[in-house]
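Hi R.,

Here's the chain you asked about this morning:
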Amino acid sequence: MVILCFAALIVAAFWPPLGVLFLIPCGLLGTLIVKGVTAATALPFAYLFKGDFSVWLLLLMYAVIALILVLPWLRQRKALSALLMSACFVLFLLPLGQNRDELTVTFLAVGEGDAIYIHTPAGEDLMIDACDKGNNAEVYYIIRPYLLYQGVNHIDRMILSHNDTDHSGGVAYLNEFFGISSYVLAKAAGYTYAELSAQAMADGAGLTWVSAGDVLDLGGNTTLEIFYPDGAEEAYGNELSMVARLSYGDFSVLFTGDVEAGGINSLLTSGQDISADILKIPHHGSKYSYDEDFYEVVSPENMVVSVGKNSYGHPYEGIIDYCAAQSIGCFRTDLVGAVTVISDGSGYEITTYADGQK
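And the predicted structure, written out as tokens:
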């Protein structure tokens, strides 16, 4: 292809129509290469994905390979060389980068939408929402690479706050690429999930319908408590958003979807203990979800706003002012990128993409 392209350039300088003749076989070769690679990637075990691991481990593997290639006495001992190479390959495959004793929650920066990855101490990989499919840019270039980097090859549970496209639009793609074992959906919003539930049943995935008062045991001293909706509300749209608290030991995060004034009022009058260390601000920081009484009851130490470029005025400046006045940390994904929280069940640490998080 390179030779034909150079020939086309040289010939076209003298006679452009003849240069085109050289480009025709060049284009055919390009098509054959693309089709051949596409067919090859469809073969079993054609490729594998590997999560992050230590730089020192990578250097060790390269050092072993270099020694096998450089040292004649080692190269001549084929059995030993094969054993060392096999050991390097096994080390490469091991998921050494994951700490199974910690809870990881990452609020991904997917623009004006929600996509939250959770890795539990019991080893489950969960997603809360999956942003807007749009042209699949956020799903393909943000969620997918991040999950692969974390060594995720399957999603154990997909928890959807509600069925708006900026929260559920990328579910089909993630299911196609990773596979989803089960879905957790609000029972009160069941009529909005007709298509999704039918597809889940066709795929053999589990369906868990939850209402206020339900508690899901995620193993490893980790639970997901459902606070809203309970099915009694005459709600629709954003007001059907699931509100749930993820707890690990003494640490907790409150997820709120796009719940607005009606749902927030129901939470405040329900008498439930909805306190949490971290609050995911409802509805991308909309002024219609702004409620200081709600913030005081939750009493968070930090807040996260999942937001992107928009024409709605998100996040409402009152939220930012409130956080500053109350000395509450406020992390906006449009400013700091992905926000990751890691907890050992007692304390926790927050890092952001802007601060050098991988």
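The mean pLDDT is 91.

Let me know if you need anything else.
M.
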